[in-house]
Amino acid sequence: MSDSGPGDFNQRIIEEFRANDGVVGGPFEGAPLLLLHSTGARSGAERVTPVVYRADGDRWVIFASKAGAPDNPDWFHNLRAHPEASIEVGTETVPVTATVAEGEEHDRLWEAQKQDMPGFADYEAKTTRRIPVVVLTRR
Questions:
Q1: Long-range contacts, 98-106 (Cβ 8 Å, 24+)
Q2: 86 falls in which pLDDT band (50, 70, 90)?
Q3: At 83, phi and psi to the nearest 5?
Q4: What is the gyration radius of the CA atoms in the chain, in angstroms?
Q5: What's the pLDDT at 5?
Q6: Are 61 and 101 spatial neighbours (Cβ–Cβ below 8 Å)?
Q7: What is the rounded distance in angstroms from the CA atom of residue 70 to the CA atom of residue 68?
Q8: What are the tens digits of pLDDT across the range 111-139?
C-alpha cells in the first residue's frame, strides 16, 4: 500500500497554505482555498480539511462535491453534527457557523460556482446525488 494517501495529500496542502499566507499551487493554484476546522461527528476530534470556497457577501460558501463521488465528504457529516467550526482564510482564523443552503439559495450558489469553476459541473455529472452547498457565517 502507498504511503501517499488522501491524508498525506491534504497535509501537504495544509502545510503549503500556512507557509504561504493562504496561497497554494498545484491543482489548487489560483483557486480560493480555505482550511476548514471541523469536529469529527463520531470521534469528536478536530479535523482540518482544505476546501475550495466562493465568497458570497461576507460569507464563505463551500461545496460537498467530493469530486463527484457517490457519497458526501466526511467534513459535511462533521458540520451537520457540529455546525460550530472555524476556518483559516489567508492569514486569518475565523469562527463560523455552518448551515446547509436549500432551495433557491442552493441553486443560486451552485450555479454560480459551476459557472466560475466548470470542474464543479464535471463533479455534478459524475454523481446522482444533489451536491450540498454549505454557507459559513462568521460567529
A1: 98/134, 98/135, 98/136, 99/134, 99/135, 99/137, 100/132, 100/133, 100/134, 100/135, 101/61, 101/132, 101/133, 101/134, 101/135, 105/133, 105/135, 106/132, 106/133
A2: very high
A3: -70, -15
A4: 14
A5: 62
A6: yes
A7: 6
A8: 999 999 999 999 999 999 999 999 999 99
Q: Any idea what the Cα angle at residue 69 is, between residues 116 and 14, rounded to 5°?
A: 65
Place of cell 466548470: 118
3-state helix, strand, coil in the chain (%, to 5): 35, 30, 30
The alpha carbon dihedral of 50, 99, 86, 37 has a sign of negative
Say which residues have a Cβ less than 8 Å from residue 107's Cβ, sequence separation at least 6.
Answer: none
Are the CB atoms for 93 and 48 separated by under 8 Å? no
94 strand-pairing partners: 87
Q: What percent of the chain has pLDDT over 90?
A: 92
Summarised one tens digit per residue, pLDDT across range 9-25 is 999 999 999 999 999 99
Give the CA dihedral 133, 65, 33, 76, nearest 10 degrees.
60
Q: How far is CA 78 from the centre of its chain?
A: 12
Q: What is the distance between the terminal CA atoms of the chain, rounded to a whole angstrom? A: 42
